[in-house]
Amino acid sequence: MAQQFNAQNIKKRTSVLVFIKGSTAPLVLYVDNAEELYTELQAAMKSATAKFIEKETMGPLKKVSFVSNQIAAVALQEEQYA
Q1: Measuring CA to CA, how many Å separate 42 from each of 32, 47, 70?
Q2: N or C: which end of the chain has fewer CB within 10 A?
Q3: CA 10 to chain centre
Q4: How far apart are alpha carbons 10 and 62 in whole angstroms?
Q5: In angstroms, rounded to a whole number, what is the distance separating the alpha carbons of residues 41 and 39?
Q6: pLDDT in tens, 45-76
Q7: Residue 20 scores a pLDDT above 60
Q8: Contact criterion met (CB below 8 Å) for 76 and 35
Q9: pLDDT exceeds 80 at position 14
């Protein structure tokens, strides 16, 4: 018997994907305010000065650090979960 999900049980969360130069998979960062982190990382990418970035997250990655001049791209990802 197939399990049926009620639409009320479906939630959405937004994560920030950070693509590092030379890496095959992005870092997926779950934070309280994804839009704010996205904007912060965009500004760091635009800066001519390399900046060391360290963040604590709520997902499988608990703490992550990287240098801003190694960021190839950033993205916001919305996903559904029950």
Answers
A1: 17, 9, 12
A2: N
A3: 20
A4: 25
A5: 5
A6: 999 999 999 999 999 999 999 999 999 999 99
A7: yes
A8: yes
A9: yes
- Could you list the beta-strand ranges (E) of the chain: 11-20, 27-29, 52-56, 63-67, 71-81
Q: Are 27 and 18 in contact (CB under 8 A)?
A: yes
Answer positive or negative: Cα dihedral of 66, 69, 72, 77.
Answer: positive
- Specify whether the CB–CB gap between 76 and 18 falls below 8 A: no
Amino acid at 51: K
Determine the Cα–Cα distance for residues 6 and 27; give it in Å rounded to an integer.
Answer: 31
Hey, what amino acid is at 66?
A: F
